[in-house]
Design brief:
Blueprint lengths: L1 H31 L33 E5 L6 E5 L20 E7 L1 H4 L9 H11 L4 E7 L3 H10 L8 E7 L2 H4 L8 E3 L6 E3 L26 H20 L39 H24 L2 E7 L2 H4 L1 H11 L10 H12 L3 E3 L2 H11 L14 H12 L4
Parallel strand pairs: 3-4, 3-5, 5-8, 8-9
Antiparallel strand pairs: 1-2, 6-7
Helix pairs in contact: 3-12, 4-7, 7-10
């Protein structure tokens, strides 16, 4: 009997060893395969759809577009339409709204204007549909702007010609704070309340020569040779698998850039995660970013208050704030010390800024996190992209529709 069980155990051990060896060989082969070529597509992508001109009345989206553009997957086509001004709507915006119809300007960056998102699936389109289904006579106009300072200038120069009754400003956490024009860019606060001045047309998206600093050394865990070597191989494998298998596309860390990054080396103004906003205590650059943002917020509030236009703010959280899976991957990829980061710090800071100037700020961060914990559903696009997918757009729009009255 003993010899029989010994034989079973030996055979089982050989099977496990063979399976493990086969898996190791397969993974090694995947790591050494050449990068897959991108699927050919003639569809224009988001970069071909924007061109900010401060003299144009419709924001940073190109005007008079009606075409199919790149969606989430290579070759996937989604509809994109702008009117003759550049607003992302399905009709030509008249100077005055229809009698009895509330005109709402929904202003923001690629989260709001809907990067790789079909016309009917953007936050603005879904928000309008929710309100109309509830019996509210409303027209929601999506207005694209790369950052709130540009939005302030546009509101000052152009919005009065379209008579909005309400403005909702989307704030993306956190590149709307880190990359903005009052930080050495093309705009400056004027001498009168609510006034913004165009200083340099070449810097309307910020100063391209302003070099980043780095997060302090205590933002990171100490070096661990074996763990670091394992993580480097694992994340390279995850990246390659995500390029080949859509089913694996959510298993990579959040996207970072455009400046160079590496484990224990991270800039203080990353475009996609803006990780510096969450580091405690705030760095000098973070503090300066908030100070300039406060000027923008107070300036817009003063401008719209003088014109009698209602003004609200809505936060667009980054993916690792609401999905613990993304936060764990980001920490491992860059050896971050999680105890040095506060994932709600910018939310509290912006809420305080809104309260100081008498604004209502809507923050769906906790609602999105609760939804993910309850359902496991992914709300952001694959391969670490910072943007909401269709499910994320729908959830934010439904949440906001219930609260903005």
């Amino acid at each position: 009997m003993r010899s029989r069980w010994r034989g079973v155990l030996v055979n089982l051990g050989l099977l496990l060893a063979s399976t493990s060896l086969s898996l190791v060989l397969l993974l090694a082969a995947l790591l050494h395969l050449p990068e897959p070529e991108s699927a050919p597509s003639d569809l224009p992508d988001y970069g071909a759809l924007i061109a900010y001109d401060p003299d144009r009345p419709g924001g940073h989206l190109k005007p008079a577009l009606d075409l199919m553009v790149q969606g989430e997957r290579a070759g996937q086509a989604v509809r994109w339409r702008t009117d003759r001004h550049g607003f992302r709507i399905d009709h030509e915006l008249a100077p005055d709204p229809e009698p009895g119809v509330e005109r709402v300007f929904l202003i923001g960056d690629s989260y709001i204007d809907g990067m790789r998102t079909d016309q009917a699936a953007t936050i603005g389109a879904r928000l309008a549909a929710h309100w109309r289904d509830a019996g509210r006579a409303v027209e929601v106009v999506t207005v694209g702007h790369n950052n709130p300072a540009n939005a302030w200038y546009w509101l000052q120069e152009h919005s009065a010609g379209f008579h909005p009754q309400r403005v909702i400003l989307g704030i993306t956490l956190g590149n709307d704070l880190v990359f903005q024009n009052l930080l050495g860019g093309g705009l400056a606060a004027g001498t009168r309340p609510g006034e913004v001045v165009l200083v340099n047309r070449e810097f309307l998206d910020g100063d391209p020569w302003r070099l980043p600093g780095k997060l302090p050394p205590d933002a990171f865990l100490r070096e661990r040779w074996l763990a670091d070597a394992w993580n480097a191989q694992e994340f390279e494998l995850r990246r390659r698998l995500s390029l080949r298998l859509d089913a694996f596309a959510q298993a990579v860390p959040p996207l970072v850039g455009p400046f160079p990054t590496a484990p224990r080396q991270f800039p203080d103004r990353d475009f996609f995660t803006s990780l510096n906003l969450f580091f405690m205590p705030p760095t000098p650059f973070t503090a300066e970013s908030y100070e300039r943002f406060d000027e923008v917020l107070a300036g817009i509030a003063a401008l719209l208050r003088e014109r009698g236009v209602a003004f609200d703010v809505v936060l667009m959280p980054t993916r690792f704030q609401v999905d613990s899976r993304d936060w764990r991957l980001l920490k491992r990829a860059y050896a971050l010390d999680g105890q040095r980061f506060d994932l709600r710090a910018p939310n509290r800071r912006i809420l305080a800024s809104c309260e100081a100037v008498g604004l209502t700020c809507f923050d769906p961060t906790d609602a999105l996190e609760a939804h993910i914990r309850a359902t496991g559903e992914r709300l952001y696009r694959p391969r670490g992209d910072m943007h909401f997918n269709e499910a994320g757009n729908a959830l934010v729009a439904a949440w906001l529709a219930e609260r903005v009255r």
